[in-house]
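re the bet — no i am not wrong, look at it urself. input seq straight from the record:
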Amino acid sequence: MKISNKIMLLFALLTVSIITGMSFFVYYMANQHSFEDFYKRLEIRAYLTAHATFPPVGTDTLAYNYIRDRHLEKLPSEKEYILPVRQMDDVRPHPELGLPLQFYQEVIRNGKETFRSGERFYEGILYTHTDGNYIVIVSAVNEYRAQYIAELRRILIICFIIAAGVVIGAGLFFTHYILRPIHRIMNQVKNISSGNLHMRVESHSGGDEVSELAGTFNNMLDRLETAFETQNNFVSNASHELGTPLTAIIGEAELALSKERDCNSYQASIRSMLREAERLEHITRSLLHLAQTGFDGKKQSWGSVRTDELLFSVKHMIDRITPGNKVEIDYSLFPEEEEKMSIPGNFQLLELALSNIISNAVKYSSNSPVSVALAATNSKNIIIVRDHGIGIPEEDLPYIFSPFFRASNTKPFKGYGIGLPLTNNIIRMHKGEIIVNSRMNEGTEIRVELPSS
């Protein structure tokens, strides 16, 4: 069932249920009112009967009879009874009425009482006259109630049918009106494919859930477009990086086999093929590391890592790989509490990640001074690497963690575009974050934040 039909159905059921409940309440209250109204009529008839039979001193009996007969409607099957009360606790029930003795006792005690037997209603009052006390009883059949309730029921049923129709119609209209922007978004999304990922869903500035949904779709399309561009870039660069050494190896082998050569020529060809094979082996090994350190990749052994010891180890590695480098560790931000410098993680992986960052800083700054600082809070350790190198173009920043991607200004420098993606995967495995700030020809600052627990 479509969501529009569900909304309409729920809206109709809720409204019809409320109308039904209110109708039953009105029906019940009207029914009770009809009883009270009829008892009130009987009471008035009883008092008039008493005054007409035993008029007060100085009044005319004919006047009461005239008012009762001319101005008061005679009730259906109306009967009147007058019973003398000898003593306040002594009354003789009327044999034709068949009323319980308790009825007469309540009339004497309270001054009046009502009783119902089927559709016949009784009203009794205690009337005091100069010559004694009397119980005046008036009874009649309540034919008005049946007519009144039948008319009320007819009106309620008609109103219920009209209201149900209006509610269903309004529900259909409003669900269509409310869901119309969603249908528009659905149609726009259906027209977006891998060939036109630059298209976006039209959104308005209403600030409601529909505009948030459109914004969510657009954010998702931004990520998809970036992912597709990254994938295309990866495929093209991987093909180039893997194809170049293979082409060189094949070319050297074909050249060596094309004719007889001396020993030195064969050795030169073999050395050339060895260099290209080592290059190819380095690329494939890097790709293997990249795959193994994916966010959902191979699980590594975990332990407690001291970040100060990690920096010293990375510095020693950089000194061994690049003698004469100008990497300096900045101790000014080191925390005084040693326990703050312990984080959970894998020492070898973190060492590989930081060595990639610092090696890049040394390489792309042409061995200019590189600063490495360590700071710690109660919740995380922060490692900051600053260089004064060539920087990263602003338009290239979104893609620096894509495999095989190299910034547009790095052509003079040797590299494969795998170091930073590998580093990013390692930091993500440790639930950390890499923040890159860079300016062209001014340098780059990379901040690595690793949680302490």
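see?? The chain is about 55% helix and 15% strand. told u. also The radius of gyration is 50 Å. so pay up
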